[in-house]
Description:
By secondary structure, this protein is an alpha/beta fold. The chain is built from 21 helices and 29 strands.
Amino acid sequence: MFPAGTRISVLTTQPLDRLLDYKAPEGGCRTGDFLEVPLGPRKILGVVWGEGDGTFEAAKLRAAYRVLDVPPMREEMQQFLVRAADYTLTPWPAMLRLAARAPGLSDPPSMKTLLLRGSETPSRMTDARARVLDALEAFDGQPVTLKELTDEAGVTASVVKGLVQQGVVAEIEAPRDTPYPALDPSLPGKALTGDQRAAAEHLAEAIRAGAYGTTLLKGVTGSGKTEVYLEAVAACLAAGRQALVLLPEIALTAEFLTRVEARFGAKPAEWHHGVTMTERRRCWRMVAEGGAQMVIGARSALFLPFRDLGLIVVDEEHDTSYKQEDGVLYNARDMAVLRASLCAAQVVLASATPSLESWSNAEAGKYRRLDLSSRFGPSVLPEMRAIDMRREELPATRWISPTLQRAAEARLQKGEQVLFFLNRRGYAPVTVCRACGDQIGCPDCDARLVEHRFQNRLVCHQCGLSIPTPKACPKCGAEDRLAPVGPGVERLAEEAQELFPEARLAVLSSDLFASARDLKARIEEIAAGDADLIIGTQLVSKGHNFPNLTLVGVIDADLGLKGSDLRAAERTFQQMRQVAGRAGRAEKPGLALLQSYEPDHPVIRAILSGDEEAFWRAEAEGRRMLAMPPYGRMAGIVLSSPDLAQAFGFGQALARGAGPLKEIGAEVYGPAPAPIARIRGRHRVRLLVKAGKTAPLQPALRAWLAQFRPPANLRLSVDIDPQSF
Ligand code: ADP
Ligand code: ZN
């Protein structure tokens, strides 16, 4: 306890590189308390980190305003933030921002009242008012904050206030946050098969032991991994501890919530950007107070203030979306392991196609490995075959080979569903001018604009720039000379419609749906039989279950193998196996056909052979020889600046001053253009640092970077364990 007026040290969310000293507020405070403190003229959020160290002049010390009425940060969370910051070389304030994402913490004033549909109709309908009413509808009658409403409707607060005065929108007092309905782990689960039971018992035992441990739970899609880890959740809840399940795709949560409800009698708490602020505030608080036993969420849920976290499940642990390439660069899988090790929890990494990292950690005995050997029930894994595109006759602007066409026809005639997979959104990846030869590019990025014909626009997939599709070439002005090059799902749909005029087509691509909810609804319709031919991007490769689907045609199996990325093989392997896993889930055997110009490529051969362990071993051996992750350590340093020469110059200075890295035997490569060389007008240059498996990489990086001061308009970000190298 720090009595009022004593010196405390406070971590704030401001981008400063040190803690700030204050006087403890009226009534005193404790370590971990969330505070409002002054900074210049502003009021900012902070956490009492400990006793002030006295370096700051006592006379200038200001008093903290007040302790916020929220559960204090536990010591374990402080440790987690520090360790995570150390690992990722992230400044502490950025870490705190992740942990203080509860709306009640960041913007308290707007939380007092909530809005919902009132009984009156507007005296006069305007566009803006109609949008407010639509938005309220979209929230399903749930009370929302003013900010949520104005954001969703795209109107100013005064439009909403006007409607409140007329009684069209009603105000209510924000309810106290209430605990979530209790989950009952003693309800009976499904009767498990032999290896499901063995796996579930292993996990339950580990959880009862109450110590840290990580398990790789491997099994093909449909083998019952979810059933098994729900038993682990049951054991965790029965032990009185909290469970967290991370899912890579929020579109999947609805289905998952239903399963949890069927198993435990109530729905768990949810945490992702699709959840209302009110609900997020409740989740944050209840997680801290123990009123939420189970949370399912996106990766940021790892930073929730659990009171007693006993289990973290990372479903589809190999999924690249667990590591987003912006903001704080962390991999949720690795942070889950760190977090669990600090609170004596178990981690379950579930996947049909584990990351090489997890696979090798299991090989090395660091993780326990449990395998589910077959699909549950009568379904079998689809047979996989290649179509050698060198032997197929088709024009340059066609992508469905005669062989694939025949196979699809046969299935469609039997009333079965067919999926064509192409991981390219839009109509065509490139638009070329046949007069001047120019390929229309984004003015701000190193990227071609992608035609989205359904919207009649050209879009940059890097920065989101979107312009109406021009009639004339922007470069030379020639009229009607622009031509699409290459296929996207929209163009593939056009071809498919011509080949299969009778088939009901569905295109599944994230940009074609306004919200995760719409997408989810469409997927359910399709699964229920409301389409014959599905054309989809990687969206379909994640967990959706289409029971009547029996044929998967991979339009371009070589797509992921191009480029110099060393992880390309691993990714392609995972993706092909995942997509193929969509076929034949019910009683009907599935077939996956991979169109490839290189059917003898080792990765394609490995995919077809189905010998996964052989693939992992070969891949691991290759990485080991090069001392690449996971057999060596890597970090990327990305420098971005509007001025390419400046970024390059600074990169060269970094490379020349790499003494601290040499001391640990690390090598520095670059500077070279980053994988995406320009985004939003900023040039990006990257250095790669490669060190031995046990080298103290982070301290060396810190010592190295501390020697330099980047120029004002240059941004430097450190990416530990980069996804591509
Ligand atoms: P995975 O997570 O490996 O994809 P799931 O746990 O989702 O597999 O199982 C696939 C399907 O099989 C689900 O509909 C699930 O309910 C069902 N299932 C799996 N195991 C059993 C079991 N032992 N008894 C009944 N149904 C099961
Ligand atoms: Zn762009």
